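Notes from hallway chat w/ T.B., transcribed later so I don't forget. T.B. wanted the structure written out for a chain they're using in a teaching module, and asked if we could keep both sequence and structure tokens in one place. Agreed to drop them here.
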Amino acid sequence: MSPAPRLYGGVDLGGTKIQTAVVGARGKVLGEAREPTPASGGPPAVAEAIERTVRAATDAASTKPDALTAVGVGSPGEVDEGTGTVAQARNVSGWDGPFPLGPTLSESLGTRVVLGNDVSVATRAEFELGAGKPYTSIIGVFWGTGVGGGLILDGREWSGRGAAGEIGHTVVKIGGRRCGCGRRGCLEAYAGRASMEAKARRLVEQGERTALFEIMEKRGRTRLTSGVWDRALQDQDKMARQLIDQAVEALGAGIASANNLLDVEAIVIGGGLGTKLGEPYVERIREAMMPHLFVDDRPPPLHVAALGDLGGAIGAALVAKGKPASRG
């Protein structure tokens, strides 16, 4: 009798949603679940929501959390993989100081929990299973609540001293908009969904009109999700177009600068907005890069993340499995 196959859980913790998956051999998704990230209650409420979505995903896969070999969590903020704590997850409501997310989930789920950076694990998934498979060096850019980056260089993940890949905090305008990190002029201050929402609210207070918040309320949302932005763009909402245009311009400058430094083979665009807006906007980002590329006669190809919304959860499951990202 052959042994039961090993199953792994993956959790993608985002600013507006928690996506979970149960992953089997070769990255096959056997069950998944999703729910909004709690807007109040801080880290304990988030941990409870993660537990619920993992249980829902295991139900969909006809298994139980304690039957999983391990669960991986891709989290924003300062992730201490050794202690299982997360701090300064600023795009998650109420999360400032360190919280023992790994130990908390391990106790509630009854299995081992491994943490990783959210964008790094999503980039790893695209490298191993998605749009990055043909290449040995890629930059993953994940455009959502914030703007995060992941690096695969010469077939291996690159994290530097622990903070590599923070493309969202590339400065695209000296003395520009205030970013959520407290600094000015960051790419994320122009392209992060949270920053764009804050800008939209300020413009409304100044008397400008938009349908963004009407769409949000009709959909029962409390924040401007990627779907809300997409709908507003389809409806030709002037403010939505202006803010997205600014985001695309900033993304073009920031990504081009990163590529001028690293000269990778390809760039993968994912995240909530990246995957929702898709190829037409990736093409616009490609065009916005061109004036800033040092070697503009051979720009790197840009691809939409092939794994879509499941990429982060699949990448987290790969981290739980312990398989290193390498090729070459």
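Follow-up for T.B.: The chain has a mean pLDDT of 93. Might be a good example for the class.
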